[in-house]
Amino acid sequence: MDMDAYIRNLLVTNPLREPTLRAATEALDLPPDSRGLDAGCGVGLQSLLLAEAVWPAGHVTALDTSPELIERGRQIVGQSEQSELISFEQGDASALPFEDDAFDWAWSADCVGYAPVEPVPLLAELARVVQPGGTVALIAWTSERILPGHPRLEARLGATAPGLAPFVHGQEPERHFMRALGWFRELGLEERRARVFVGDAHAPLDEDVRKALVALFEMRWPGAESELEEEDREEFERLCRPGSPGFIVDHPDYHAFFTCSMFWGTVGGGQ
Fold this sequence. Notes:
Blueprint: H1 3-28, E1 35-39, H2 45-53, E2 59-64, H3 67-78, E3 86-90, E4 103-109, H4 119-128, E5 130-145, H5 151-158, H6 161-164, H7 180-186, E6 190-202, H8 207-220, H9 230-240, E7 255-266
Parallel strand pairs: 1-2, 1-4, 2-3, 4-5
Antiparallel strand pairs: 5-7, 6-7
Helix pairs in contact: 1-2, 1-8
């Protein structure tokens, strides 16, 4: 992985995602003096939102396996008002370097349960470090409609290997992210809930949102054209390539939306 390019894409696409993820953190109604874990924190963009939610007396521990992401996260967070509420640690979500019941809550965005890895042990590890009565939440990007007026092409792109990512063909339905409530049930978490959060963008686009959409188009279907028939491939090249005169984001009536799905539950044993 080109880590510099990955970090750049995280930052450039953030204007699309931040309002949606902010709404999700607000929906959790985290206590303002609570201590929580952001597992798979990346460069700390969601850690900042979580810190806002527990302002002024809470704390967020931001954990990632990548030292490059952690270093960049420290730089980003260090420039914010929430810097004192966030600390970074390197570690693996499958073997968290924390004692049992260390946190009031745990959160993971586009990480635990989203990669094609057995999700239940990862969720169990999050629940292990949350005290009884605390919250465990998973959230991830789950769908998009970014080719308005071209549902056939978008459906065909969605059926390609890149379009299915991060899921894989042949994955057991029970291990698909949209079945996460079953994982919570399997582990005995209580008060299990699910909610979809919708983000959108429409013309006229401000420059930051346009840049975010350009980055999204460059990332979303890498190599998908090789799986398309010639007619669809030509339409894909015309509509989805930022350098094309027909790039759909530049249409004067452009509108797109995407969804993030959050699943959360309560660790049993609370009063």
